[in-house]
Amino acid sequence: MPELVFFSGTMDCGKSTLALQIEHNRSARGLQGLIFSRNDRAGEGRLSSRLGLVTESIEAGEGFDFYAHVVGHLSAGGRADYVICDEAQFLTPEQIDQLARIVDDLELDVFAFGITTDFRTKLFPGSQRLVELADRVEVLQVEALCWCGARATHNARTVGGRMVVEGEQVVVGDVNQPETVVGYEVLCRRHHRRRLTSAAARAAALSPDVLPVDPVDQDA
Ligand SMILES: Nc1ncnc2c1ncn2[C@@H]1O[C@H](COP(=O)(O)OP(=O)(O)O)[C@@H](O)[C@H]1O
Ligand SMILES: Cc1cn([C@H]2C[C@H](O)[C@@H](COP(=O)(O)O)O2)c(=O)[nH]c1=O
Asked: Which residues does the record give as substrate binding sites (predicted)?
């Protein structure tokens, strides 16, 4: 049975790498996929991984109709055995419905990749719809880690090096950026709640106020 699978995780956990591996393994066996992405950091019409791999993709902008595109492709004599869609968090709920229809009516596997929540820990509308509709939600096995060593489950946005919790939902960007640009850092929930990024934790560790001497302990 064809499936709609949502591969989900934080930023920088290997989603695009997995998308490229699925594409590689299937095309190596003679299958042909349609590859879509939206707002990839490498630019329009690209699906890129931090490991340096990149492939061409069809840019799925806001008004793009996935179902109509695939039907048009097949009607024109094109072949499609499966569909890959990266940065699926940026898609509209209607576009996710179109992906589900590709699975049900055209009987193609659809593999969607994306982060679930934004920098405020709120669901992206596209990811919400994927959680609602997907046959399977797969959390990636290679865990991204918070600076404390715990599993990273949340995405933080930094502006001028400081974590922010207000702003536009969509700002294309990357982890490990200089303080001068908007950046992202993956954190465990505990440190996301406390707004404690690695830089803030380093600063706190250097501050004399961090470990106040407890007078009770001193007397003990
Ligand atoms: N220099 C490196 N050596 C080994 N692995 C790396 C290196 N740089 C990045 N990675 C791996 O690539 C992952 C990011 O992959 P990517 O597909 O770009 O993530 P995502 O699409 O989830 O944001 C990192 O979590 C890490 O496992
Ligand atoms: C948390 C968060 C992220 N984004 C953007 C930043 C990146 O361009 C992508 C995620 O890409 P990745 O391949 O998973 O690293 O999403 C955003 O626009 N808003 C956010 O809140």
From this structure: 170-173, 184
- Reported as a single tens digit per residue, the pLDDT across 163-197 is 999 999 999 999 999 988 999 999 999 999 999 99
Cβ proximity of 109 and 83 under 8 Å? yes
Q: Which two tokens stand for residue 133?
A: 């509709």
Say if pTM beats, i.e. exceeds, 0.90.
yes
**Rounded to whole angstroms, how far apart are CA atoms 37 and 84?**
8
* CB of 125 closer than 8 Å to CB of 88: no
Query: Which is catalytic among the residues 3, 87, 138, 166?
Result: 87
The ipTM (two decimal places) reads 0.98
Residues having CB within 6 Å of any atom of ligand 2 = 11-12, 15-16, 41, 115, 118-119, 155, 157, 169-173, 184
User: pLDDT, tens digit, for every residue of 99-112?
Assistant: 999 999 999 999 99
Cβ atoms within 10 Å of 169's Cβ, excluding its own: 12
Residue type, 196: L
Distance 31 CA to ligand 1 centre (A): 26
> What one-letter code names the amino acid at 147?
W
Residue 179 appears among annotated catalytic residues: no
DSSP 10-51: STTSSHHHHHHHHHHHHHHTT--EEEEESS-TT-TTEEE-TT
